[in-house]
Amino acid sequence: MSLRVRVIDLETTGSRPPAHGVCEIGWQDVALGADGQWSVTDERGATFVNPGRPIPPVTMAVHHIVDADVAAAGYWQDVAPAILKPEGGVVALAAHRASFEQRFCTPHLSGGARWICTWKCALRLWPGSPSFSNQVLRYWRMPHGLVREIGLPVHRALPDAYVSAHHLRDMLNAASIEQLLAWSAEPGLLPRVVAGPERGRAWSDLSADALEQFARDRDEDVRFTAQTEVRRRGGYSQPEPDRPVQGQLF
């Protein structure tokens, strides 16, 4: 198996399969070199996918892919396997906010590949970033070697995968792949409170009462982060608070 990770980005008709479908997939490989360093390779590409339904105007307005662009393209079940399971194999797939791509890139299509979420890893490695979107990280970090033209336009599959790959390269050169996979398997560990009256504050600055409220939040990332801080303070000798159904962070 090649020592490479394939970064994936999807443009879709919406966020919930099977009601929504993929209309474009882009990929960019990151590989381990003989010098022991990971690098962004020349192996990249993108292809349209016929989503099997009209593209809503609200999503056209995001990625600017229209029905005529995808009319002659292959369907997802036919297009996906060769990209998600390339010749030579991959040690993992990756995406920014990988939970979204995983809704469409099912284990059947990906061969049960492991996933790295560059968003979750950025929370751990670069907690000082003003935001953790792919594009804010791009301009806050200014990754070495990122060719601006290849990374544009935003909200298209190849440019977004290309930008995410530069974040991933730097992550892999700062932490082991197993560490990134472990972080990706957990909810996001948020550096700061993201909403409400406490927005922007460090978790360590919150009162015990405020922290306990967050530890019961509907959002699993907020809940996980608050519970982690409670444990840091020596709490939870008793069972943890019940976990409600996951909500959306932002």
Automatic annotation (TrEMBL):
Domain Exonuclease: 4-177
A Pfam family reported for this protein in Swiss-Prot or TrEMBL: RNase_T
Region (Disordered) residue spans: 227-250
Domain of life (superkingdom): Bacteria
SMART domains recorded: EXOIII
Name of the protein in question: DNA polymerase III subunit epsilon
SUPFAM superfamilies assigned: Ribonuclease H-like
